[in-house]
Amino acid sequence: MGEVLGRYYSRDMALPDNHPWNTLPVSDVASLLERATPMVLARGHRIKSELGIVISGAVAVECELFDGRRVLCTLFHQGNLVDLRRTKRNRQGQLIALKRSIFIALDERQFAVCATDHATAFFVQLRELTARMRDHAADLVSKTPLEKLASVLFEFTRWPGAVLNDNEPNMIRMPICRSDIADYIGVKPETVSRAIRQLERECIIEILDKNRIVLCDIPSMRRIANGGRPRRSTRR
Amino acid sequence: MGEVLGRYYSRDMALPDNHPWNTLPVSDVASLLERATPMVLARGHRIKSELGIVISGAVAVECELFDGRRVLCTLFHQGNLVDLRRTKRNRQGQLIALKRSIFIALDERQFAVCATDHATAFFVQLRELTARMRDHAADLVSKTPLEKLASVLFEFTRWPGAVLNDNEPNMIRMPICRSDIADYIGVKPETVSRAIRQLERECIIEILDKNRIVLCDIPSMRRIANGGRPRRSTRR
DNA sequence: CGACTTCTTGAGGAACGTCAACCGCAGTGG
DNA sequence: CCACTGCGGTTGACGTTCCTCAAGAAGTCG
User: Fold this and answer.
1) Best to test chain A binding among B113, B134, B143, B234 (most A CBs inside 10 Å)
2) Which residues of B touch A65 (CB under 8 A)?
3) What is the band of B168 on the pLDDT scale with cuts at 50, 70, 90?
4) In whole angstroms, what is the distance from residue B112 CA to residue B128 CA?
5) Which of the four pLDDT bands, split at 50, 70 and 90, describes residue B20?
6) A142 or A25, greater pLDDT
7) Beta pairing partners, B77
8) Looking at residues A27-34, what average pLDDT do you find?
9) Are B129 and B61 in contact (CB under 8 A)?
């Protein structure tokens, strides 16, 4: 824990091939990577840096509550910009890798230079992040476990590399394990399991194996994710 | 609904006197306000603009779920920068005033100019916002209603103008009504009421009237807010 | 093969939502 | 002035739901 598996230096080290990095001119990419200190992390490794870019894998902000409950506030995937600094208040939570991941840590100065050089890309990343966090807050506030799960499955479809096969665009890979999903949507792993089975029973998804599922009935799932499956008598 | 009470043009219109706006040089403030179209809103008024700055009052992103449940994803107070744009996906939720508020709407072009001129202030605002949203997500994920309420009370203490009286620094004003608190922390108004009474019974807060409370035992409240009051047997 | 982790399934209970009723207050109109 | 209405807030009784606990299944690694 807390250790870095190794450094990932490569001549053809590249930024993730997704928005907004793939819109940067080549020279800018090079200047960004010059300042990089990439590291390879395994599941459970903590990242001391508050600043950086996720190159691959899955990383989260993990908080531990007073009594030991574990919470994942935010998920980061390939291409996400991470900035946990805050002016007032002390830092809450820390970065943790949820699976084998590559992360470019940046120090304050490097970050400032990059943010100036690539202000637009950085702004776009921050705006996307806040939009994702708003959606996640809406998920957490009052949805039932089934609704939360459907919503998070849609979130996963938007992860780069989620679609495994162009012939089967609705087959996706689950990027993180069940207990991490549980800590992210605020239910217990047992409840995640039951919710997945429920969707399967209703033929809305098909479970190929633990890591791969097919979305069979996207309209129904969208309706559930938007709040179509309230508690029995929540209709006041 | 959806109407604007009036425009708020004033020679001495000023940006909120809090971070980061109060650190801007006078000339920058003037240039920001030149581009402004301030509006006065009453409770329930919707704001069509996706971009702007909250001058006073309380504004939120409101989402309505499929079955009518109402959710407040994010709260904005005096001085907060609002940017709801998103590249992919359609817009979720809309801005709504929770009480009498003043809001400066900015259009895309105005916003771009401001963001360039005041990049640092804008970055600071965005970073503060993401930090607040992370904390809120941590609150929503797995805390009990009592813990959520304690946490949101601390959030309120950080609102500009929350402290009513320098002699009594622990007396704060509740900036939004009970049912909005409920929609923000994902419980029912009845539960908010019960949680407040609970804190009062334990002499952790004192209720002066509906809008004013005193935090009597901050350490206990902090412990509760950090997860010190789990469900009876959540300790596995 | 055994030790371990992750996931799954089932049974039972605490907790929060639901429903209903009530209070206090502000606004409104006669 | 009072009656009426509506809204926000509060309290109590009851029931669904999701968490807890336990045990087993399936996969992984030594």
Assistant:
1) B134
2) 142-143, 226-227, 230
3) confident
4) 20
5) low
6) A142
7) B58
8) 62
9) no
**A85 Cβ neighbours under 8 A, 6+ residues apart:** A50, A51, B127, B131
**Which nucleotide lies closest to B236 by the C1' atom and the CA atom?**
D20
Using the CB atom, is residue B197 less than 7 Å from strand D?
yes
User: When comparing pLDDT for A152 and B6, which is higher?
Assistant: A152
**Best mutation site among A141, A148, A156, A180 for testing chain B: the one with the most B CBs within 10 Å?**
A141
- Do the beta carbons of residue A30 and residue A86 sit within 8 Å? no
Q: What is the pLDDT of residue A175?
A: 94
| CA-atom Rg of chain A in angstroms | 19
The pair of structure tokens assigned to B11 is 């020679």
**Interatomic distance B236 CA / D21 C1' (Å):** 9
Q: Is the pLDDT of residue A181 over 80?
A: yes
